[in-house]
Amino acid sequence: MSARISFWTTLTDPLIRQNPVTLQILGICSALAVTTTLATALTMSVSLTVVLTLAAGIISLIRRHIPDTIRLIVQIVIVASLVIVIDQILQAYFADISRALSVYVGLITTNCLVLGRTESYARFNAPLPSMVDAFGNGLGYSLVLIVIGSIRELFGMGQLFGAQVLPLAENGGWFTPLSLMLLAPSAFFLLGGLVWAVRSVRTEQVEPPDHTPPLQRGAVE
Amino acid sequence: MAGTDWNPWRRLLALPNESRAKTIIVAFLVSAICALLVSSATVLLRPIQTANRAAEEQARIGDLVRGIPGMAALLEESGGTLSTVVINLNTGRAAQDVTAETLDAALTDMANWTVLDAGADIAGLGQRPNFAQIFLLRDDDGVSLALLPVAGQGYGGQIDAILAVHGDMNTIAGIAITQHAETPGLGGRIEDRSWQQNFPGTIIRDDSGDVRFSVARGDATTDYEVDGITGATRTGSGITRMMRFWLGPDGYGPLIDAIARGEF
Description:
The structure holds two protein chains of two kinds. Chain A has helices spanning 2-12, 28-33, 38-61, 71-93, 95-101, 103-106, 112-122, 127-157, 184-201, 215-220, and strands at 159-160, 163-164. Chain A is mainly alpha-helical. Chain A has a domain at 17-152. Chain A has a two-stranded antiparallel ribbon with strand order 1-2. In chain A, a hairpin with a 2-residue loop joins strand 1 (159-160) and strand 2. In chain A, helix 3 packs parallel to helix 7. The termini of chain A are far apart. Chain B is of the alpha+beta class. Helices cover 36% and strands 21% of the residues of chain B. Chain B has helices at 8-14, 20-67, 71-77, 103-107, 193-196, 233-247, 253-260; strands at 83-88, 93-94, 113-115, 127-129, 131-139, 142-153, 158-166, 172-179, 214-215, 225-226. Chain B is elongated, with a radius of gyration of 25 Å. Chain B starts with 7 loop residues before the first helix and ends with a helix. Classes of the chains: A mainly alpha, B alpha+beta. The A-B interface holds A 62, 64-70, 73-74, 77-78, 80-81, 84-85, 88-89, 91-93, 95, 103 and B 13, 17-18, 22-23, 26-27, 30-31, 34-35, 37-38, 41-42, 45, 48-49, 52, 55-56, 184.
């Protein structure tokens, strides 16, 4: 019973409470790059979740036999091979999406999220909990990507999954697309807004300020 | 103490993680298994990927023709399809015994390739096939548009493109880059529509018949030039040399003469 509860928390914790993107600010480079449409965001999420889960499982399986001196190399080699295999599968069966994601699939290798989870969790835990944890983190990452992807596609093009949701002004509707939403800066704004929103609700996530503003000195001078 | 375990696998697992032997063996095993995984994925999936790329190239040819002003209407008039012709580059005539279906097989035979000597090989290809598949659009007066696949060495690797030439065989109608390995953001901008829109209307040869086409350094100043891409001089000169080779006597020169004589 308690084992099931702990699996459940391992799985659900990273969704919001310990979300890798909004709390730990990991893996945001890809979160910014692939969220212009919902379809690419979803593909990226699925690819990353698969890679992360498999990598965590494999690394956890051989965790007792990874020499400490070369553990990072071993982990990266495993992650990179999985990424190449996934990339090849995408190129074969999802050619359009593979073109849209272009280099970002390859960049899953360097996604700090993957190495972060394998290094901090999979290396010390049995395969099953490691994979549950990795899957949960993948879902947390996916959640953020899907939220940002749908906002950007909806307001940037008035579409969701390529289907017109808001009638465009140029076709006689009322909606004028915000082209800013399709540019990289908008992802920064949205991600910032999302982090702020999450931390306003869950105040325990707010970090203590690094510096106290020098109000006193300003008053004296 | 238990007797020595002679099973080498168990002995390996029993070694302390920090021992040199185990470090090397684990590193070797991990890389060997990963290499096997990656290679088998690549080999098994290659046929599907090749088919995808061929379909994509077909779609790009369609896009190219539709993107040329006035061509969509022309295409609809002529039934919306292009005719495909395999030509013999040495004679400039339609190939006798090679068809679009057998072209790939014919090109695996090195007898169907011409090795280029250093002076003629301005596009950096080394050798050139004797047969090429081209696409022709015809109207009542003969060929109105020719789509010619070209290739040449760029900065990062080979550039493959399809050049569209109007029926006078001297005015470029458009270009589509089908494959390249140029630096993203610099030479990679050759795949941008905005740069490719420089091509329509550019004149290939001057009155004396010399190929004058080039990619300018900076903005185009003559009718024979297209704008250069800032920071991608070597990509630009690669395109210039590719075009000069393929439009010259060792490339489509004989074909262009034949079309001009009205043989197609």
